[in-house]
Amino acid sequence: MLELQTAQEAIARTERELRSASFTALSSDRAVRATAGPQGELSGIEFLENKYRDMSPQELAASVLEAAAAARLKMNRHVMKAMAPFAEPSSDVPELKGFELDWERIFGAEVLRDDEPADRAGRAAPGWRDALDEED
């Protein structure tokens, strides 16, 4: 019972922390900063240094989408890391074998990837940005 109570308290703490969490990311061109809230929703967007004034609508849209996706990915990885211990088997109670969580199914395949393709400057660049480069 003590282990169950301890687990319930830890889950409650984690839920409270996750409810107030947010993550911010910059687009690779450093024109847009986006913030994702606790459920991965876009909760903020900033256009930096008036760079948007010199961008085409397609470039600006790509920067917004890139920054939003990166912030959402950070949030998803944070949730995954915070919740993973609750799925593991209990070392003190052998009957609690834990369970598998399909993080890829929950958040998408990118949440499990460590390798992002790099752009010419060595920064991570999303695949859809290639289409913009081809148009130029």
Keywords for this entry:
alpha+beta; single chain; 4 helices; 11% strand; 3-stranded antiparallel beta sheet; 136 residues; 42% helix
Shape, per Cα inertia axes: elongated
Largest pleated sheet: 3 strands, antiparallel
Helical content class: 40-55%
Order of helices and strands: HEEEHHH
Structure summary, number of beta strands: 3
Regions with little confidence, pLDDT below 50 for 5+ residues: 117-125, 127-136
Number of helices: 4
- Distance from N terminus to C terminus (CA atoms, Å) equals 64 Å
Radius of gyration equals 19 Å
Structure at a glance:
The protein is 42% helix and 11% strand. By secondary structure, it is α+β, with helices and mostly antiparallel strands. The chain starts with a helix and ends with a helix.
Account of the 3D structure:
Helices cover 42% and strands 11% of the residues. With 136 residues, the protein is an alpha+beta fold. It has a 3-stranded antiparallel sheet with strand order 1-2-3.
Blueprint (SSEs and pairs):
Blueprint: H1 2-19, E1 23-26, E2 32-36, E3 42-47, H2 57-83, H3 103-107, H4 129-135
Antiparallel strand pairs: 1-2, 2-3
